[in-house]
Amino acid sequence: MGADFVCAVLFTIGLLLSAVECNCNGHPGERGPPGRDGLAGMKGQKGEPAVWVDGPVDPSMLLRLRGDKGNSGPQGPIGPKGYRGDVGAAGMAGQPGQPGPVGISLNSGQSASNQRTHSAFSVKRNTTRYPPFNQKITYQEAIVNINNNFVINTGIFTCTTPGFYYFTFHSVAKVSMCLGLVKEGEPEKIVFCDENTRNSEQVLSGGVVLELTAGQKVWLESYKDQQQSLQIAKDADARDVREKLIVFNGFLIFSNS
């Protein structure tokens, strides 16, 4: 009975509270602190690639699509030498080169340009008299005379190609004889002598290398040194009517022009 009484009392109080109207409104509460960041979302799917169009492209568009070129970085160290590769295939044949200079021909039909680089002579004196002293010896026959650089009736060789020349001579006589090679502009002669005391036929020979400039002259002359007097030579000429042979030779060894 006691429990039923309590329930009746509570029911009555609830009815009374529901009948009473409340005219009071409360204030909003203060904002609470911000919450923590949420977890990262899932990665999205890869997009479709850009589509390139044919035809000219606007440079400004390229700049937007691609960034500016950066500065070059420092050069790295030289790497180790690699292995030697296989030999490649032979290349194509090149174009023919320019024609070379005209060669030197030893034939008699050589051109004038080649002949100017050659110089040689061999002349012969074959009179029955000995040559006079201290005069240029003249000759009667030119065995060889390339470019006509030697004049036999004056006995003078004139250099046309500067360089080094070799001159030789051979003389047959029964008297003492001295022959000298003379180079124009040189005060001293190059003299060769043969003293003949037995009045027998002897050969006098000599040779020398000379450096000549263009236009310089060379000749051979009889030199009075150990030779007998002119009268003795004349008497020998009268007794001996054979040719007093003198052969004079010269040729260019090499030019220096």
SSE inventory with pairings:
Blueprint (H helix, E strand, L loop, with lengths): L1 H18 L39 H7 L46 H4 L4 E6 L15 E5 L4 E2 L4 E3 L4 E11 L3 E7 L6 E5 L7 E11 L4 E6 L7 H10 L6 E10 L2
Antiparallel strand pairs: 1-2, 1-10, 3-4, 4-9, 5-8, 5-10, 6-7, 6-9
Notes on the protein architecture:
- With 257 residues, the chain is of the alpha+beta class.
- The protein has four helices and ten strands; from the N terminus they run H-H-H-E-E-E-E-E-E-E-E-E-H-E.
- Strand 6 and strand 7 (190-194) form a beta hairpin.
Q: In a few lines, what is going on in this structure?
A:
This protein is α+β, with helices and mostly antiparallel strands and 257 residues long.
Defining key terms:
257 residues; alpha+beta; five-stranded antiparallel beta sheet; 10 strands; 26% strand
Radius of gyration: 62 Å
Helix content: 10-25%
Q: How do the helices and strands follow one another from N- to C-terminus?
A: HHHEEEEEEEEEHE
User: In total, how many beta strands?
Assistant: 10
Which band does the percent of strand residues land in? 25-35%
Overall form: rod-shaped
Major beta sheet, strand line-up: 2-1-10-5-8
Main beta-sheet strand count, sense and barrel state: 5 strands, antiparallel
